[in-house]
Specification:
Shape: globular
Number of strands: 19
Bound molecules: zinc ion
Radius of gyration: 20 Å
Strand content: 15-25%
Structural class: alpha/beta
Mean pLDDT: 94
Number of helices: 10
Strand order of the largest sheet: 6-5-4-3-2-1-17-18-19
Helix content: 10-25%
Largest sheet: 9 strands, mixed
């Protein structure tokens, strides 16, 4: 009898363990104001969006991506989505590809914004990488096939998804006050056809949990995507566009998405400006803003409590670097953990919104 009870106990705990591992994990890796975000699905498929910075920072950012991979217990990348051809999003690609197998490369197509290091990479290095793997040019509306996950590209190559996602498509009341940008308020440059407009945006559904990352998709394009009807609906978790700069992140996007928690892949002096923080702090239903880095540009008025901030050191070479980790359940609940201090907050399953 006792042996049977032990057997039952072992079976129950093994089942519980199995149930616990059925999560979608998202690592927002600190690459000092660039992007590298690792998704690990319940079937342990690994999708990486972007590879951080290049040049002298490539080894550092590849190290940081590999640290997240090690934590997740994965040794290869099933799909690498390069959101666009800017150095803070694709810089460490060759470095990473030299260290771990990357099975599938996804991008928006050719570079539209001439830049010598990027064009040299695309001419001399990228063809060799994709020759040994699959390569797909993403179109808005395409699905990335994964087990148990609906991964949709909602923007790519300057286009936005035309058909509303399941359950979405209602008129967006936050379009009314939208004011288009004629110049980029951060750089002062006229807005237009840069690589940012080309960003591959990913919408990820796991049961009732939904996450969105539009990379550096700019302000005026947000209107195209979200107005007059909200084609994306609401999300539980938003990785904030453009490192938390106000050249993206209109109310028409953020307030319409109604995220419960957001994370910003900012750098210490990149992103987190008061304009964006105001949009985030006033977003209906938003509980918390998490940050990859302390944001000097927020000022005391808009700063988030340090407990939500993964890195507080003003030294781009600092080691170790800490991530934010999201663990999502199919019932729509999720937890966010700060890799630096171990602080975890659980967002319990909400009532239908
Ligand atoms: Zn960027």
């Amino acid at each position: 009898m006792r042996r049977m009870l032990v057997l039952v106990a072992v079976t129950v705990s093994a089942t519980l363990l199995l149930a616990q591992s059925k999560t979608l994990e998202i690592y927002v890796i600190d690459v000092e104001g660039g992007n590298a975000t690792l998704f690990v699905t319940p079937s342990r498929e690994a999708v990486l969006i972007d590879t951080g910075n290049g040049g002298p920072a490539a080894a550092r950012d590849a190290d940081r991506i590999m640290a997240a991979m090690k934590d997740a217990g994965i040794s290869h990348i099933d799909a690498l989505v390069t959101s666009h051809w800017h150095g803070d999003h694709m810089g460490a690609m060759a470095e990473l590809a030299g260290r771990v197998p990357i099975r599938h490369y996804i991008d928006h197509g050719g570079n539209v914004q001439p830049s010598q290091p990027v064009d040299t990479f695309l001419q001399n290095v990228y063809p060799g990488l994709i020759a040994k793997a699959r390569h797909t040019v993403a179109k808005a509306g395409d699905l990335l096939p994964l087990k148990g996950i609906a991964w949709r590209f909602v923007t790519s190559g300057g286009e936005v998804v035309k058909t509303p996602l399941p359950g979405a498509g209602r008129p967006n009341p936050h379009c009314a006050g939208f004011k288009p940008h004629t110049v980029n308020p951060v750089s002062g440059q006229p807005v237009g056809e840069t690589e940012d407009e080309q960003s591959v945006g990913s919408h990820v559904t796991f049961g009732k949990f939904r996450a969105l990352y539009l990379a550096d998709f700019p302000w005026n394009k947000e209107f195209e995507l979200m107005c007059p009807n909200n084609r994306l609906g609401s999300v539980e978790f938003l990785l904030v566009s453009r490192h938390g700069q106000h050249s993206s992140n209109s109310e028409a996007l953020v307030h319409a998405l109604r995220p419960r928690a957001v994370a910003i892949n900012n750098g210490i002096r990149k992103g987190g400006q008061p304009e964006t923080m105001h949009v985030l702090h006033s977003s209906p239903g938003l509980e918390d803003v998490w940050q990859a880095h302390v944001a000097q540009l927020s000022g005391a008025e808009h700063a988030v409590p340090g407990i939500f901030v993964a890195n507080i050191v003003d030294d781009p070479g600092h080691s170790p670097a800490h991530w934010l980790k999201v663990s999502a359940q199919p019932d729509g609940s999720f937890a966010v953990t700060n890799g630096r201090n171990g602080f975890t907050k659980t967002y319990a399953t909400p009532a239908p919104r």
